[in-house]
Amino acid sequence: MPLKPALLLAALTLPLPAMAQMSPAQVAKLRDAALKDEIAWDITEGLTTEIGPRLAGTDDEARARTWAVAKLKALGFSNVRVEPYQMPVWVRGEEKASIIAPFPQQLQLAALGNSGATSAEGLEAEVVYFPTLADLEAAPAARVAGKIAFVSHAMHAAQDGSSYGPFGQVRRAGPAIASRKGAAAILIRSIGTDYHRNAHTGVTTFPEGVAPIPAAALSLPDAEQLERVLERGKPVRVKLLLTPRQIGTRESGNVIAEVPGRDPKAGVVLIGGHLDSWDQGTGAIDDASGVAITAAAAKRIMAAGRPRRTIRVVWFGAEEVGGFGGTAYAKAHAGERHALAAESDFGADRVWKFDTALPASAAAIADRLQTALAPLGITRGNAVAGDGTDIAPTLALGVAAVDLTQDGTRYFDYHHTPDDTLDKIDRAQLQQNVAAWTAMLAVVADAPEEIGAVPRPAAGH
Amino acid sequence: MPLKPALLLAALTLPLPAMAQMSPAQVAKLRDAALKDEIAWDITEGLTTEIGPRLAGTDDEARARTWAVAKLKALGFSNVRVEPYQMPVWVRGEEKASIIAPFPQQLQLAALGNSGATSAEGLEAEVVYFPTLADLEAAPAARVAGKIAFVSHAMHAAQDGSSYGPFGQVRRAGPAIASRKGAAAILIRSIGTDYHRNAHTGVTTFPEGVAPIPAAALSLPDAEQLERVLERGKPVRVKLLLTPRQIGTRESGNVIAEVPGRDPKAGVVLIGGHLDSWDQGTGAIDDASGVAITAAAAKRIMAAGRPRRTIRVVWFGAEEVGGFGGTAYAKAHAGERHALAAESDFGADRVWKFDTALPASAAAIADRLQTALAPLGITRGNAVAGDGTDIAPTLALGVAAVDLTQDGTRYFDYHHTPDDTLDKIDRAQLQQNVAAWTAMLAVVADAPEEIGAVPRPAAGH
Ligand SMILES: [Zn+2]
Ligand SMILES: [Zn+2]
């Protein structure tokens, strides 16, 4: 029966006739059907298997764009396209470290994005220990110069991921501070919460004029081992080999797909996640699941009929290394009216809370969201929505927002490590995400209220 | 007060006067005091920090012997010595693998002990998939020749570790079977139960006349990724670089320490674990904790007075790569009377069961053990005791045995991986182990019964 799948696909992809606003019962029906969703799993499994790691600006990310365009077209979206931009590209090299004295042994580590390189022979230096970033900041340059600065700390898991902001500063700012004091290199305790010997990478920044020194994260077992070795009170020497490279300007791009709305003046609902990933895992929770959840929900709305507002799904490029895709998108689409934006970039564990940022004239939408999301165990929060690196530049222009906040308790066990792989995705929780996004889109895209501007300061985290 | 610690040490290490058999109340008191033991933690922390990995036959294992002799002397044991022997030594080299086609991406793997090497440029070949070892065995050589055989399976966690025997055959025998069929190399799914990208190594054997081909284990996420890629039905090519080496015959050794007994004719109680470890972790659960638990218990008995039987603590060398230490010990001490042997080599989670192998004339010892161990939550099993690679050659001579069986539910999450590090030791469970061993030794070493031979077939697992 070779015709059947083709016929089924045609039926699914053919836009149904325009409808009036969905009733709460229709929203509930769409939401509950999404609890059996297979589209998000199919995208997550396909992207992580057929592409795997996809570091921003590399050929791997380019292959991911090609894959994404084919997948989004096959799902029946309209206006599927790539919007390219240029960006500087950093690639990982060799990375090895070992304690030379007093207790010789290897250490497991990962270079931070934008890390400088050692020579091909590596460097050897004494380690100087700082329990916190503040201790490094307070240290006189003479204590640090020529040494390997080692900055530890104690990030703990939090359901809302709130520990990432403050603890992440060690990674974001620590290397530049150490460089300014003349450090030969810097090692940090991974910004992570698991005790596996897979270090957590992530981007760091050396401002103009600050020399990029070798900068790497130790896994938690390695960081604690180095602390124990230091506690013995003898001078500790470490040999470090890191050979990452800046390979110049390359092309990256955002992949865009749409569900056309019936009222072009009502503004676009912008949703998505990021297509790029770090290079050591396959980017399953960060962020194959995010692009999958948002596209699956949009597809389910499309299959139910033409919504009032156009839903634009963007699979952003180059988020991890500096949000280049989100910046390029905001610049390219600054002249367009966006009604609302929402982003999924915190894994695929269950959504437990939602927040909104809506103009007063559209406040009733939040009440309807509460009704639609409560059966999924999602409570209404009291924060101002606006999460997400990729939508931040668009939100900064005054666009309304919804956050569907996932349970992040185990997110930082895997985030930015080789362990971010498909097996970390819980299929039932992934489906709950799709149901939440489907319900949210059903309410928001069809809302009869105008959704005007929400003044806000520049956001992002 | 510089004299105080020295005086205290002298008091602790001076053998107390000979005593009669301990009463059940005295045994209980010793057992309960051991629940606050710090000796086992001190040994585990020290060995894993100050030595780290200690692959059999290497300089690292030699440093561990020096460390062990110093530690056991400092604890006040008698006759502390190294008994050396010679053994063939294999060392790890570089190890890299990637899928070349159809979906280029890296794979994480670890060479198996005794693996052959690829050339310095690596080898590239098509992958041929076998769900089980039986499928590989059944395959005609023409399907395998020149290819990379990939053998998967599905080991699951079991409290008693019983899945390791049957599933471990893939690692032990699979490489030789693949070599006989002309395979270019073999990849196996790790013999492990965790989903982290740290592959599980372990020894394999190529019998005389069978060429050692490159043989490595993939982590579970990588093995399942490779299965998904194969499921797409296109030819899968993998590039493999493995450069381990056989470096010839080197010296290894057993470290031995004693608590002298008051009745030399009553036979020796032999206890211990193994000092060597695999090279990627620090060998905390395998088996720093085993040498620590047994030595701590013996030290606590020593501090309570001279037992009837000599307790001999052996920290065996070279267990992981073929039980060379256990074999050398049995050969060197075949002429001595051993009353009983017991080994700790299954991590440091709580002891939940004990078994015995005793002659009928000493059966009452098992009843007294039941009384002494029950308050620790340890039940009496109905198996014949005799676990342990290192004591197996001694047990085979007809020596009685006690097994104190640890909870192995999470053991194969870490076993033979870089993740076998100090943080995996639960201090309260480690103390429960010391209490169990202390109670066992108090009962066994002082038992008034003669403990004669127990006929048994050659044991070991
Ligand atoms: Zn992300
Ligand atoms: Zn072991």
UniProtKB/TrEMBL annotation, chains A, B:
A single GO molecular function term of this UniProt record: metal ion binding
Residue ranges of domain Peptidase M28 in the record: 254-438
One Pfam family named in its UniProt record: Peptidase_M28
Subcellular location: Endoplasmic reticulum; Golgi apparatus; Lysosome; Secreted
Listed SUPFAM superfamilies: Zn-dependent exopeptidases
GO biological process, one term: proteolysis
Record-linked InterPro entries: CPQ (IPR039866), Peptidase_M28 (IPR007484)
Main location: endoplasmic reticulum
GO CC annotations on file: extracellular region; lysosome
UniProt keyword annotation of Protease present: yes
Protein keywords: Carboxypeptidase, Endoplasmic reticulum, Glycoprotein, Golgi apparatus, Hydrolase, Lysosome, Metal-binding, Metalloprotease, Protease, Secreted, Signal, Zinc, Zymogen
PANTHER family: CARBOXYPEPTIDASE Q, PROTEASE FAMILY M28 PLASMA GLUTAMATE CARBOXYPEPTIDASE-RELATED
Protein name according to UniProt: Carboxypeptidase Q
Organism: Sphingomonas desiccabilis
Organism lineage: Bacteria, Pseudomonadati, Pseudomonadota, Alphaproteobacteria, Sphingomonadales
